[in-house]
Amino acid sequence: TDEKGVILVRASFSYFKKKFQVEVNRFSDTVVPIVHTSQEANASCTIFWDDSFRLNGTVCLDTKTEVSLDEFQCALSDYFEQETGRGLTEINKRCIYTIAAKSFDKNSINIRDLTRDKLAGREHSLWNWLSACIKLIKNHFAVAWKKFHIVGFICRDDIQVILKQFTTGSFLVR
To answer: Is 1:34 a contact under the CB 8 Å cutoff?
Structure first.
């Protein structure tokens, strides 16, 4: 999915017997051609990255090469809302931040970290995991997710804080 592009859409309009002519040029969002479904996750990551981290005042394909984990979390929350109908909570963001910081040993992230580098102790990339989570939510848990019946991404420390509020024997499925 290293190949990407945009589509230029041009339209021309005439008003009042051609006294006023308007020409509109608009670039599409990023387009990533794929030839196999195994490329779908990386293609969606490229589109996410380009849409989220496009440089202001530049051609569509110019993006930041690296962003802070905080900036990434905000963009990811917007993406989750767009894809699943609900953004990420602060607990979800903290958990994803912890996973990313532990896996990449820095406070920033780039598209290579997302798509090619494996998570610490795992056989998959962060984006492959997030993409699979989005599919699972959309296909099986959309209503429960939108109603906050599912907490989502949560770290052990947060689980312990939450469980202390309940009686002994209470549990969370993780």
So the answer is: yes
What angle (nearest 5°) sits at the alpha carbon of residue 146, between those of residues 91 and 132? 70
CB distance 126 to 100 below 8 Å: yes
Name the pTM for this structure.
0.81
Q: For 39-89, what is each residue's pLDDT tens digit?
A: 888 899 988 998 899 887 666 678 899 999 899 999 999 999 999 999 999
142, HSE (Cβ side, Cα atoms, 13 Å): 9
